[in-house]
Amino acid sequence: MAKRRRSKPSRRSSRSSSSRSLSRRPSSSPSKAGYVSEYEITSSPLPNPTYDRLPQHVRDDIERLYEQIWTKPRKAIPGLLEWIEKYPDVPILYNYLTAAYSRSGQRRKTKDVIEKNYQRNPDYLFARLNYANLCIKKGDYGEIAEIFEYKFDLKLLYPQRKRFHVTEVVGFMSATGVYFFHGGKRELAEKCYEVLERIERNYPGNAKAIEPPITQLRWRLHPKGLWQRFMVWVLSRNRSARGSDIQPS
Fold it and tell me: Are 181 and 221 in contact (CB under 8 A)?
């Protein structure tokens, strides 16, 4: 396990017009605390103090590199490394570098950056989520509970926050759902999945970002349903391909 150095949480919530409330009712759980809280979910950007303090020209370049991650990830890497060297205490930069390495197929470097971010910023939620997913890939499911301090509720893990980004909630519910599933707590895993399905319906504009973590839990709980979804997708692709062969007269 990566050794952790404690630091203050690096992400806080803010007011946003595009948010919805999500309630939790208490439930039995192998954790020290179950689902007991209510918080708001938003798809709008949340304040990030360490990032927001950067000079404007630095943030502008980082945003340019972020956009490049989705089109030419390899080209974004040198710039991200340069800014990390200059600003090593900005957690989101490691998150962007993780995405760039992952999208360019550099698995070893992806793993190294995930571990480094978790070591440096153990309270940064995305550092926790990425490290939890690393443990899931290794089959080290028990480690997930330690990553989240046995608190399977975001409000308990971050009591000072009232709002979370949709990608934070989805990543957290997916990882904890996988933990419950492999811990023999299928009922709790299903509760996590129910929340994920609601979010999936309510945030179609974030589908590309939230689909992978939702699928991660879905194929464990409902593999037949996922296979049916896949076949529908294949058939729709085939129909589209046949249609594209028809040239206008």
Answer: yes
